[in-house]
From TrEMBL:
<dbReference type="InterPro" id="IPR050535">
    <property type="entry name" value="DNA_Repair-Maintenance_Comp"/>
</dbReference>
<dbReference type="InterPro" id="IPR041796">
    <property type="entry name" value="Mre11_N"/>
</dbReference>
<keyword id="KW-0233">DNA recombination</keyword>
<keyword id="KW-0540">Nuclease</keyword>
<feature type="domain" description="Nuclease SbcCD subunit D C-terminal">
    <location>
        <begin position="265"/>
        <end position="321"/>
    </location>
</feature>
<dbReference type="InterPro" id="IPR004843">
    <property type="entry name" value="Calcineurin-like_PHP"/>
</dbReference>
<dbReference type="InterPro" id="IPR026843">
    <property type="entry name" value="SbcD_C"/>
</dbReference>
<dbReference type="InterPro" id="IPR029052">
    <property type="entry name" value="Metallo-depent_PP-like"/>
</dbReference>
<dbReference type="GO" id="GO:0008408">
    <property type="term" value="F:3'-5' exonuclease activity"/>
</dbReference>
<dbReference type="Pfam" id="PF00149">
    <property type="entry name" value="Metallophos"/>
</dbReference>
<keyword id="KW-0255">Endonuclease</keyword>
<dbReference type="GO" id="GO:0006310">
    <property type="term" value="P:DNA recombination"/>
</dbReference>
<dbReference type="GO" id="GO:0004519">
    <property type="term" value="F:endonuclease activity"/>
</dbReference>
<comment type="subunit">
    <text>Heterodimer of SbcC and SbcD.</text>
</comment>
<comment type="function">
    <text>SbcCD cleaves DNA hairpin structures. These structures can inhibit DNA replication and are intermediates in certain DNA recombination reactions. The complex acts as a 3'-&gt;5' double strand exonuclease that can open hairpins. It also has a 5' single-strand endonuclease activity.</text>
</comment>
<protein>
    <recommendedName>
        <fullName>Nuclease SbcCD subunit D</fullName>
    </recommendedName>
</protein>
<feature type="domain" description="Calcineurin-like phosphoesterase">
    <location>
        <begin position="1"/>
        <end position="215"/>
    </location>
</feature>
Amino acid sequence: MKIIHTSDWHLGRTLHGADLSQAQALFIDSLVGQARREAVDAVLISGDVYDRALPSAGAVDLLEDALVRLTSFTKVIVTPGNHDSAKRLGFGSQFYRPELVVVSKLEQVGQGLSVGDGLVYPLPYLEPLVASRFFDTQPSHQAVMEAALARVHADLARRRQFAPQIPAVLMAHAFVSGGVTSESERDISIGGMQIVSADTFGSELSYVALGHLHRSQQISAQIPMYYSGSPVPYSFSEAAVAKSSLLVTCTESGTRVEKLPVPQLRPISVLRGTLEELLGGNFEKERESWVRAEVTDTCRPPHLHQRLLAYFPHLLSVEFFGSAHLAKLPSRSRIERQGAEVTIDFAKQVGRRELSESGKKLVHELWYQLEKGDEHAAS
């Protein structure tokens, strides 16, 4: 079985307001070419196909283009991530031709798909509050993943009675212990703990195709387990991170994983120095990059943004780190706090005591409904 593992396309996302559709289209062109050259049995997309539950028309067009081109010569298996609407992504999937499979329902968990000489077990994103009701377990990422994997391993054990060496690949969208994060991932914890132990996946699978973290990386585990990472950088913390898809070959004797580089529309760069240093010619090669400028003058120079933009035409972010300004800035952790956390803290300040666990759970559920709409409304 030969597959390409990719994830976290986040179609429709921007980088500090910059339109990334051209960068995403360049990736799709590259992916189609690589899949054709390698004659893969399938392309796996492990979640976060879109950047939001209600994608833009342009994002839908990009996905349609990718799927039409890929399914003309290979199979494509898609699962929703925490940014996708499972219902909307999976709408009409029962009418799709066999070359396109979208697994978006919990009822499909544990159903192996034949790919080449092996099996693929796709898991839609297991939202704890919803999946815990379906599996009748605790509302945590760990508990619902354990329940889903019990179904997968039961089906695999049954099949291996007749084909003991058949390769088996799992698709999952989760934060697995040992993974390295970036600034561009948004918290996926809505009630319960967000991390899943790598040991949960056991030792019977040939490969685990993970989505959610945007850095391509291997997870230390009993079996080959990788994040493909996002094909396009979605934050300046990924400035030095090479983007790739993963070519995975599974045979009876083992699994081989190779990186397939993803071409980028333009690099991203984080530049630090005084305004004179930034404009003095030392960063000539970065002028065509998407740039974040970190300015270290003691006092803020006049017309700072305009002067930098005139030199760096793709400037996206300016941060002033002068000593006269630093004391006035709130901490990053304060700025990026989740709505549920702010609500729980506010209730504590007003009521002068902690909310009960059931109260905190209700707050998380309400915020989740606000973010996702009525798709996962609590019963």
